[in-house]
Amino acid sequence: MMTSTEKISPTAQSLLQEAQNFLASRGIEHARMEAEILLAHVLDVRREDFLLKDERTVTATEERRVRELLDRRGRREPLAYLVATREFWSLDFKVNAQVLIPRPETEGIIEELKRRAGAFPPQPLMLDMGTGSGILAVVAAKEIPGGQVTAVELSPGALEVARENAQRHGVADRIRFMPMDMMKPWKFSGKELFDGILCNPPYIPEGELDRLMPEVRDYEPRAALLGGPDGLEAYRSIALNAARYLKPGGILIMEMGYGQSDSVRRILEEAGGFESITIIQDLSGHPRVVSARRALG
Q1: Which domains does the chain possess?
Q2: What is the DSSP letter of 295?
Q3: How many CA atoms, within 13 angstroms, populate the side-chain half-sphere of residue 39?
Q4: pLDDT in tens, 114-129
Q5: pTM of the entire predicted model
Q6: Among residues 247, 254, 253, 255, which one has the least CA distance to residue 273?
């Protein structure tokens, strides 16, 4: 017989409702969705199971883990870090505090790569500069038949995550990982030229850091966010270096921040060696991706 001091274990549904209420009280916009994701992660079930009104009883260990994660999310630690995964291009990628959390907007780089890939040779060589979690390198290797990718990253912790993601998605044998700083002169073999260079560089101006959401400002790696006083330092370095390591006719594709398209276009024009500079809008109608072709002459 249960004594009055014994605690009744909650059901998954009751804990889900409590989690939703807690997250909503902390200003989390999509409280229900995030509560479902957190509980599914701890209980090791599909999120869809909660839509079926799973009435299982939660163990004490599971309840404690859920409450620990809720406390961290209430302090605005990103959900992706708590569950250690984020979807990109319909694939699940490992993420942690060493890497920038993938954004849907970055898929525009892959869309432009696929649009341009018809001009590539049978086994194109591609470079992912500042690979982070490896999302661009992995998806490029999967989407471009025969493609070989060099993935460059300064952070050892990020490189480790990227390697794990390449293994997870079965393309580790087609990706070479290298430590390198995109802000310094690139050092590849003089004979090593690429058919395509991809980059989602840091582009947030330093003065805007305090205005970012706390999930971004307080938790994501600043080296992956901040692009100097005007947010354009990485573009200047990339424009100069990419022209040296792209094959004639090769393609440079980069993500841009809000309001930066004119400046990025000008940087590419002033660097010289590029033609067919194209600005691509995201689904919200904002200029988000720039592509440019290495001049043939």
Answers
A1: 12-75 (1.10.8), 98-294 (3.40.50.150)
A2: P
A3: 31
A4: 999 989 999 999 999 9
A5: 0.93
A6: 247
